[in-house]
Amino acid sequence: xxxxxxxxxxxxxxxxDDPLSIELALDRARLLAELDRPDDARDAYLRLVARSPDxxxxxxxxxxxxxxxxxxxxxxxxxxRALGIDPRSALAHANLAxxxxxxxxxxxxxxxxxxxxxxxxxxxxxxQGLNYALTRLGREDEAAFHRRLGFAGRxxxxxxxxxxxxxxxxxxxxxxxxxxxxTDTFLDDRIFRTTTLVADLYRGTPLLPRVDIVxxxxxxxxxxxxxxxxMEQLLAAVAAPVINEPERVLATTREFNxxxxxxxxxxxxxxxxxxxxxxxxxxGFAFPLLVRAPGFHTGQxxxxxxxxxxxxxxxAELPGDxxxxxxxxDVRGEDGRxxxxxxxxxxxxxYPLHVAVSQHWKVHYFSADMAAxxxxxxxxxxxxxxxxxxLGAPAMAALExxxxxxxxxxxxxDFALDRAGRVVVFEANATMIVLPPGPDPMWDYRRAPTGRIxxxxxxxxxxxx
Length: 465
What we know:
Dna Ligase, domain 1; Rossmann fold; globular; 4 domains; 14 strands; 5-stranded mixed β-sheet; about 475 residues; Serine Threonine Protein Phosphatase 5, Tetratricopeptide repeat; alpha/beta; 17 helices
């Protein structure tokens, strides 16, 4: 019997003596979740909330459990109820902010992080969350203020370990200024004990522990180059294998990738140039033209400019000192729709993650016509089942060339096919996350393919130690 099972037995005994204790019952529900008994934990929380619908800890704890299971809408309802009971609950504000952040509603997230800090000015998690939300909004000076407060004394932290055997010790490199890959899906705390190093705020103390493997999750070379450079020097003294060495990540800027990938057989890489906004010019591009702020993803700060006369006004809306000018590639199919494929490359092997189908040039899976269109999901399913049959052998060979050219152990490739069957690459780097599909049964077809990617990442980590 491990420590958590022993604690569960103790709580069961305590509840027999005091069956009406809400606090004991909440501790028990939390332990059931930690013991991977989600159905029992859910039932325990439901009974607690039914019995004490105004209990703040019950509402917050149940909400956190639901978020972990992918039920963010239900969690939002619980957090909002908690705030209706106590508008000065810093915890409920911070929890609700986290849900808004996950839903990419960064303005709402900021409001609730700020409300939490108005109540509890030293709340480190709220400062950290506000840093990330402000960064997504391009409000860098404000973000930097909260970054310093949120991570002061927390540049090196060790996560709890729930396993029963010796852990695999992982050093996870992240960047508080953004550009970090989400890795919680891979780093199961029953297998790995994760020490997280915040690269842009680490000053050499405390000393790094001995680790079995380093996972560099600093993934965006356009945003996090200073942090990557710092980690390249630090890792020279770390005697452990490194997944995604900083030097190779640094070579994945959008501008450099466009040059090197465009030279590969079967690959089209739209011309990309990074320019200072003070020296803005069309630089020989034809219109329409894409412009975006470096270091942003999921369609943020990214727009299509139809005419040269509109370029200056479009750039004025973007944050930062530099902008990316990107050649527009018309990849609409014969039906007028755009298909953006995502292939993951894990430890040298390709794995399909999804195809997003949309009527719009700016395509992302979460905003494409997928949930509402069964035909699009069927197309997604065919790609996941047999990507070679969908893409064709020449495109698969081109993807292999891209994978080999970039050389990262963890890599995502976003692309379309042109009318000649060539791979039109939009992005190829380590920023692309792999999340389990949502709980709705409509996504059941995606569970096994996503699981194969997660398993491949874990096998890679275990095989390198």
